Amino acid sequence: SGAKNLTISGFKIDNQSYDIKRQIDGKEITNCIFLSGFDNLSHFMMEIAPKSLLLPNIIQTQPEIKNIATSNLVPKKWIDYSVQIAESIESSDFNLNTIQFNSEKAIRFTNLVIITSVTHRGENKKYRMAVEEARNFSKQMKVNSSSMSFEDPYIIYLSRKYASHRRTLNQKNLIKIVKKIYPDFKFILAEKIYEMSMQDQAKLIFNANLVVEEGGGSTGFTSNLIRKGVPYVCITTTQRSNATSSVYLAGLGNYAAWVFGDPVGKLTESPVIDNDIQVNEVDFENLLKRLSLFLQKKIPAPSLQS
């Protein structure tokens, strides 16, 4: 409609037509690598973060590349953490600047490098994963998170108490069950772990002896940090298929003890907002009793065979 606006019309996704009208940003971003996404850490860690392993190859072949471009929906510390993981592998500083752009505007780019998604859904709707890249990134996350400061064994419970949806309504009772079955372990309730630095979050999760997570926006991050033989309990809702998380976990060679909670109240019609859930406490307690065999009686945990 004019030099300051961009209109895209007449295209379809899943047989639904879309028209997009965006104001064009006056600035132009040049010589950059596109590492973006949206404000969901789980998807970022599964789909975006392992792309950073290709940064040294790009810089070597295209020395004019000086920037990383990302939407302002993505917290800068996620980008910084991903780059730091790749830099620690190469033992070098990539000297890349991060430029965040307005996600609601049309952006002009010159010399833009885009890396294929590491985990994605193909045209046949099956999930696919670049396993080698994801495993290498996860391995380096673990190397960087090893810490001697955690001397006493502990359990971490990753809570969604302050999330906007999909909260576990009987969380207090579940916590009581955990403490009852594991009285000799220190218990850490992480209600706002997202306020910590990425590195501190990673260390706290990686060095735990049991991880219980109310699954959601951080599951992809947690999955990368589960140590071999450490039980991982993931509480989620029956409203979700959890296909992406399952594929990603399996690709890493890990697995979770899934605990499904039933949605409470009238089901939402939103594709991204879920009901709060109620977990069967008897089933939860029985599961933790079985897992206690690996922790308290030192029985080796089973491993996935490829």
Describe, in plain words, how this protein is organized in 3D.
The chain is of the alpha/beta class. The radius of gyration is 21 Å and the shape is globular. Helix 5 (171-181) links the parallel strand 8 (154-158) and strand 9 (186-190). The model has no long low-confidence stretch (mean pLDDT 91). The protein has nine helices and 13 strands.
Low-confidence stretches: none
Please give the share of residues in helix: 25-40%
Total strand segments: 13
Major sheet, described briefly? 6 strands, mixed
Note the beta-strand portion: 25-35%
Radius of gyration: 21 Å
Oligomer: single chain
Q: Assign the structural class, choosing from mainly alpha, mainly beta, alpha/beta, alpha+beta, or little secondary structure.
A: alpha/beta
Widest sheet: strand ordering: 9-8-10-11-12-13
- The average pLDDT score comes to 91
Terminus-to-terminus distance: 55 Å
Shape: globular
Helical stretch tally: 9
**Can you write the helix and strand succession as a string?**
EEHHEHEEEEHEHEHEHEHEEH
Layout of strands and helices, then pairs:
Elements: E1 5-13, E2 16-34, H1 41-48, H2 55-61, E3 67-71, H3 76-90, E4 97-101, E5 106-114, E6 119-121, E7 127-129, H4 131-145, E8 154-158, H5 171-181, E9 186-190, H6 198-206, E10 210-214, H7 219-223, E11 232-237, H8 243-252, E12 257-263, E13 277-278, H9 281-296
Parallel strand pairs: 2-3, 2-5, 3-4, 8-9, 8-10, 10-11, 11-12
Antiparallel strand pairs: 1-2, 6-7, 12-13
